Amino acid sequence: MAGRRLTRSFYRRDPRVVAPELLGKVLVHGDRSGRIVEVEAYCGAIDAGSHAYRGPTRRNATMFGPPGRLYVYFTYGMHWCANAVCGEDGEGVAVLLRAAAPLGGLGEMRAARPAARRQRDLASGPAKLCQAFGIDGSFDGADLATADGGVTITDDGVAPPPAPGISTRIGLSVGAEHPWRWYVPGDANLSRPG
DNA sequence: ACCGGGATGTTCT
DNA sequence: GAACATCCCGGTG
Q: What is the pLDDT of residue A1?
């Protein structure tokens, strides 16, 4: 089934609504594609765990722009992570793309992820996903709704799981109490078993 | 399988 | 100066 790009209105909603709906959708960059199996919502001013909690800065500027853009940030001195900006313009909310099941462009993914021993290690974490898909800081602000930056998310007809896994978010020291992580139960490509 | 620590540099206090 | 929405490798069992 041919993938249809998600429109801007898909993203222009609460990230806690968008996040579980992104499970099963397909992240695409050139020949590389993968089914999204794990996400987390970051909720701006009400969320102490969000980069946007204290308002706009140079780093998080994309989060405060229109929905449907890619917010890419650098962390731990060596890793990139990618989010889909959600909500209304200026709201500062987004969904972190944490893991994907590789579908296409496997050769490019393997070349980009020499440390991955197995296929399920290619994109089973937010920074691994960015490596596998070749997403770095130059993609910050890329528009998923138009695919002008070469990256987009499509719907190929696979429905999100009717009963997704839900847990607290991974790796946070503040805001860790919120159950804003969603995943496909039992999928081999999760950042941790679940 | 599981666990502990090092890598590496931007951002904010 | 500390924290960081992480990953990888080498140890042990």
A: 64
Å separating the CA of residue A77 from the C1' of nucleotide B9? 4
Distance from residue A90's CA to nucleotide C4's C1', rounded to whole Å: 24
The residues, any chain, with a CB within 8 Å of residue A90's CB and separated by 6 or more, are A64, A65
Per-residue pLDDT tens digits for A6-35: 999 999 999 999 999 999 999 999 999 999
The domains located in chain A, with CATH, are 4-183 (3.10.300.10)
What mean pLDDT comes out for the span A173-188?
96
User: Closest residue to C9 by CA to C1' distance?
Assistant: A115
For the purposes of burial, counting CB atoms within 10 Å of the CB of A141, is it exposed (0-12), middle (13-18) or buried (19 or more)? middle
